[in-house]
Amino acid sequence: MSDQSDNPHKQSTGPDIETASRLASDREGPAIVSRRWLLLKAGIALNGLVGLALAVPIVRYLLAPVRKDDSYKSWISLGAADSFPVGETRLVSFKNPWTQPWDGETDNVAAYVRKEGASQFTVFAINCAHLGCPVRWFPQSQLFMCPCHGGVYYADGSRASGPPERGLFTYDYKIAGGQLQIDAGQMPSLSNTAKLVNIPTPGQNGSAKDGDCPCRG
Amino acid sequence: MRPAAMFALPLVLAMAGCGRLPGATAAAGTAPRPEEVMDFHALYSANCQACHGASGQNGPAMDLGNPEYQALVDDATLRKWISGGMPGTEMPAFAQSAGGMLTDAQIGAIIAGMRREWTKPNAFGGATPPPYAQDQAGDVTHGQQAYQARCASCHQGPSRQQVTSTAYLSLVSDQALRTIIIAGRPDIGQPDWRLQSGLASQPSAGNIGSPLSAQDVTDIVTYLGSLRNPAAVSAAPLPVSPRR
Amino acid sequence: MPGMKQTAKQVYDWFERRLQVEGPIKDAVLHKVPRNTASWWYVFGSAAFTLLMLQIVTGILLALVYVPSAAEAWNSLNVLNHQVPLGWFLRAVHGWGSNFMVAVVFIHMAQVFLFGAYKFPRELTWTVGVFLLLMTLGMAFTGQVLRFDQDAYWGLGIGVFILSRVPWMGGGLVHLLLGGPTIAGATLSRFFALHVFVIPGTLLVLVAMHVWMVLKLGINEWPMPGRLVRKSTYTAEYNKLAHEDGIPFVPGAFWKDLIFSGAVLAAVAVCAAVFGPSGPGGQPDPSITQTVPKPDFPFLWIYAVLSYLPPSMETPFILIAPILMIAGLLAVPFVAGEGEKSWHRRPVAVLALTSVAVAWAVFTHLATYTPWSPHMSAWSGDPLPVQYLRDATPLVRQGAVIFQAKQCRNCHSIGGLGGERGPALDAVATRMTLDQIRYKVVTGGGNMPAYGKNLSPPEIEALVSFLETLHPANEQPAIDAAQQATQSNAAPAPASGAGGP
């Protein structure tokens, strides 16, 4: 404990070093000093360059999930087209095609299949067009109701009341080998139609038109 | 943080001591998946009691708590109505296979629960009721006579108990009529097919004291069914602008 | 004893010789503050800091058990609740600590605003504070996501739909937020990183800046009417105030900070012990449609506002309002950086604060019972009051069945049960005539869907005749002029009250 003799409350080292360096620079003259500044600048430039070189892969890594919608989607079978009764709307669920082993239950997706004719379907996304909450189908009153903010839709998916600006989202579908298939994999949202849309007149099927649906990419 | 310690210490001691704080109880359950709910009371109160009444009584629809009803209907029939709905009535389909929200196991739990809660031994007091399902052809003319003789004394008057209203009959099936005639609705004073209980308050109930025969029941239902004509209930014309 | 004391001193000196922190700490602790700032009004900032420390400690403790995987997060929370001894208590303390922290931060901000403490030279302290508020709310939201139950899932869904409204970049932003096309494993992982590394790290740096500036610039003096802030003279005036009529921060003001922080911690512990942890609710399985998502307490007001916007306002409001709100908060010290600090002379500030507080309270209160949402199981779960069906005709009884079976009850309450989206119908017959009821049922209007296509004529007749019976025993159903004329022709008007206005 040789430090005992020092006064711990006095900041002794700082001023000493400062004085010494000032004396040194006085001795060394402006040319040497300006060379050091140049080297400092070179050091900054080197770090900047390396930083930029590193930033490119980092940003690409960060932006990896940002892709075109289509690249996430694929055709999924919802079961035999004949298994859906004509004139009814049924809840179906399927596994998301874009999935990781640790997704757990979150890779389940639900949709409503409305069969209008022998091969005429409308497949609604479960997400309310307002803020995405899961709408529930009530066959008795032929309405979809949303539990979050009170959006209500008619059986054809058109808006009946509440805050949604538009009707329910629909999936593209096709019938292949007797199976009803939909083009899914992307959480439906307003991202492709982030603009004001006309609110269909209540009771008219004015919403489920082509191009209205982000699921179509 | 001395003050905190002052407050928290007894608390911590209490926890170490009994470990049964209200908060622990609040955290006790794990939220079940909707299809895993198997408790009869939870299922009944969420899915049935709005129409069939709390504890199966005093609802607008059939009183499931009536022991005679429980004795009259077998499990398979109950399952059929609950799963697929009852055609000709407002009873909706509850099975997932029919677009409802309940699994077959849950429907089984509801049936078992109703049996457990509402079945009474010897519900008919030794009498044999007419069969639940119609098993013979009905006769409209005899049905009308039987209705006039056995039912009309109560079911008359300008507004009350008008079961011959076309609109009403359009909303109930023959089976629903048959069931209520046989099992009655003790919660609202409708007697069973024996036409005895619940009639004390009806002074005009004269010639009705003996049980209806199975044929009477069938014929009355057939007669009432013949009055059913949904097309006759025209949509009342809408006023142009009734708004105030 | 003296020997031990001597040794302790030696050890202390050995460290101090190397660390050299005694001087700065003494400066900070003993710096003089204006006498009347040693007030109970000045305790909220330190309480927020204490809560932040509590959140960090309990957060680390929870992270010992929590599994940040979409497949296991929900299970690990249930293990915490049920199997880890007092795991439920740790979760409850963290959850209630979060609620208290948000509340205390808001109160702190309101107090600072009311006392004009954001004025020169403390503009940057306020600016950093605004970002601290945003970080606190960010912690609350990401924490709600980590709970990873149905509320978390659909709350995140709401976030997705809000982001997706951004023009051009909406889709990309959604992918970036979720780490993929849907809410799934990647989403939880990145929210874990946000909640545990990114936001707390930023929060700590900003807190350090915030406290540093409080120490360097001095605590805001108690506002006095007429004592105006001028950039040219303020510093001298403040130093005079602090040095001539000042007291050392410790213990003069600090004891109140300590007591209040302790009381807040005790309140968190009591709430945690009594009310327990929040959730987790149902499994994060998006194919479960029987769910009624609801955000946590700090976001209830947003939830309410979003339900009251007319459809045409949704996107503009959602995109513009947050920017305006944050810009407004940031602009406060630059718009009003000088002048009066006292609330006695700042009516606009007081009015603005009061309006915001009242609006916030009203929206939060509304969101606790969501009158705008249909009650999804009212139609099958809420029984009718028995007396409403006493002496009902078969047709009326059938109308009541239709009222239930067609989900009218989901939006209209009877006897206090049912949805509140539409008006309660207990006395609808006194407000509307038979024709008006029928018209409304068939054509809808306002926020009511049209039921004309979904009800058969007998169903409409039954339903309307049931609704016609809904009036108090001592009040007659409403009738229109034609009916009134018919009635008064048939029989002399019984009493003046029968017709109504």
Brief sketch in words of this structure:
The complex is a heterotrimer of chains A (217), B (244) and C (501). Chain A is of the alpha+beta class. Chain A is built from 1 helix and 11 strands.
What are the SSEs and their pairings?
The complex is a heterotrimer of chains A (217), B (244) and C (501).
Chain A: H1 13-62, E1 74-80, E2 89-95, E3 108-115, E4 121-125, E5 136-138, E6 143-145, E7 152-154, E8 159-161, E9 170-171, E10 173-176, E11 179-184
Antiparallel strand pairs in A: 1-11, 2-3, 3-4, 4-9, 5-6, 6-7, 7-8, 10-11
Chain B: H1 2-18, H2 22-26, H3 40-47, H4 49-52, H5 67-72, H6 75-84, H7 104-118, H8 140-151, H9 166-170, H10 174-183, H11 214-227
Helix pairs in contact in B: 3-7, 6-7, 8-11, 10-11
Chain C: H1 2-19, H2 22-30, E1 32-34, H3 44-63, H4 73-82, H5 87-114, H6 123-147, H7 150-163, H8 170-178, H9 185-217, H10 234-244, E2 246-248, H11 249-252, H12 254-275, H13 300-308, H14 314-335, H15 347-369, H16 378-381, H17 386-389, H18 394-405, H19 428-431, H20 434-443, H21 457-468, H22 481-490
Describe this structure in words.
The complex is a heterotrimer of chains A (217), B (244) and C (501). Chain A is an alpha+beta fold. In chain A, 23% of the residues lie in helices and 24% in strands. Chain A has two domains: 52 residues; 148 residues, Rieske Iron-sulfur Protein (3-layer Sandwich). Chain A is elongated, with a radius of gyration of 32 Å. Chain A starts with 12 loop residues before the first helix and ends in a 33-residue tail after the last strand. Chain B has 244 residues and is an all-alpha fold. Helices cover 43% and strands 0% of the residues of chain B. Chain B is elongated. About 2% of the residues of chain B have low confidence. Classes of the chains: A alpha+beta (217), B mainly alpha (244), C mainly alpha (501).
